[in-house]
Amino acid sequence: MPKVLIVDDIRSEVQLIADALTPKGYDCIQASNGLEAVERARTELPDLILLDVVMPGQDGFATCRQLKRDVTTKEIPVVIVSSKNGESDRFWGQKQGASDYLTKPFSPDDLVTMVRRFV
Fold it and tell me: How far apart are CA 78 and CA 61, in angstroms?
């Protein structure tokens, strides 16, 4: 069963994503901030990371950069999932190593389609 790490500080957002992916056969694990995400990624080695940008402490861009510089996690695809939908946000996400960018709000079908591209 493919493992997806969902990183978001808003519990309802995590639940929304997990509710869309779990019935499709994905094992969803979670982290509520960037530092926890890096630690979970190192220990759990998920197949994909869905990463929010706006979080307390370390934001998603810095977290993505850290994941991509770590020999243990650098090959794990990261999809930024954020309400920040400007072209500069997408560009910055790519510069940090994100594989793709999904803008909130999204439909469950769009989310599953995105996840299937990587897992």
Answer: 11
Position of tokens 């560009």? 91
Quick check: is 58 in a domain?
Answer: yes
- Domains held by the chain: number: 1
Listed in sequence order, the DSSP H helices in 1-119 are 11-21, 34-44, 60-69, 87-95, 108-118
Contact present, 49 and 5 (Cβ < 8 Å):
yes
Give, in order, the Cα–Cα distances in Å from 101 to each of 25, 29, 72, 90, 92. Answer: 22, 20, 22, 6, 10
Domain hosting residue 39, numbered range: 3-114
pLDDT tens-digit readout, 20-32: 999 999 999 999 9
115 and 4 Cβ atoms separated by less than 8 Å: yes
The model's pLDDT over 47-71, given as tens digits with 9 standing for 90+, comes to 999 999 999 889 999 999 999 999 9
Q: What span, in angstroms and rounded, lies between the C-alpha atoms of 46 and 73?
A: 9
